[in-house]
Amino acid sequence: MARNLLWVVVLIVVVSCLVWTLEASEGDADPLYKSCVDQCQKTGCVGDTCFHQCKFFSADGKANDGPWYMQEPLYLRWKQWDCQSDCQYECMMTREEERKRDGEKPTKYFGNWPLKHVYGIQEPVSAAFAALDLAIQFHGWVSYFILVYYHLPLQPNRKTYYEYNGLLHIYAIIVMNALFWSGVCHSRDVDLTERLDYSSATVLAGYTLVLAVIRSFSIHDQSAKVMVTAPVLALVATHIIYLNFYNLDEGLHRKVIYGIGGVELIVWGLWAALTSHPSKWKLRAFFVSSILTMCLRMLDFPPYKGYVDAHALWRTAGIPLSYLWWSFIRDDAVFRTTVLLKKSK
Prior knowledge:
Blueprint: H1 2-19, H2 31-43, E1 45-46, E2 49-50, H3 74-79, H4 83-101, H5 124-151, H6 165-187, H7 191-216, H8 222-245, H9 250-274, H10 280-298, H11 310-344
Antiparallel strand pairs: 1-2
Function: Involved in the lipid remodeling steps of GPI-anchor maturation.
Pfam family, one: Per1
Keywords: Golgi apparatus, GPI-anchor biosynthesis, Membrane, Signal, Transmembrane, Transmembrane helix
């Protein structure tokens, strides 16, 4: 009875996450905002704040003629902060201060909530937690590597008994790559970093689905693995090609990621409910936590104090989830190695 009640509560939470979103108008269509940006690009100033970049770049973003020592500093060019982007940010924050004084709610600009920058980093909290999550993933991978190669018995050919070892090493590389580009995109969201972030996230989603199916159903036959991988690979490749060569559609990308993630959660959930694995409580905790984490990703609300939005909370929740995941993988490696050793005797 208690177990059934738990799953009902989880379902209610999921449904609540799907319906609890805030509607927001596009602030970049605000005439006052557009007028501010146009004026800033001409004068280089918003109120008392002026940008020296506007002396070296025209309104269309092209560099003006001038000696090399008068050009924009290299570190600013590397971040791609130019006159237009600085004007857009300052006008956005100025306009939001005006809206706050008038008792109006925050609004989105170019599809994103107005977040305060720190040393040129657009989403400092999300970027910091993406970096921390990457560190946790790296720690989990290293601890797993030490376990299987130095603490557990190896076969005569020096290979591990754990049959999913290769898949886990590939997973570690893919997830750390995705977190790296996510952190870069949170730091500076331009066309290139956005494409790399979306593409690496798609690869990660597809690979974790394949990993979930292979581990949950204990698939060892190579032809069966190909049958599982082929359709997922086709979907991932098609989506990445569409994003990079046809239309960088954020809405479509979210739907694809949510769809793949939903199927993956169903697979993990079925295994968690039916397995007799000695660490099944970790698997079930991972399943429930993954659902709650996905809910955070679906939420949408104005940033608290200008820094913490739903995406930042999602990044925060992913950190303990990563630790729990590698903890279960280490237990699974011990369990499968013990079983296979008994069979070999």
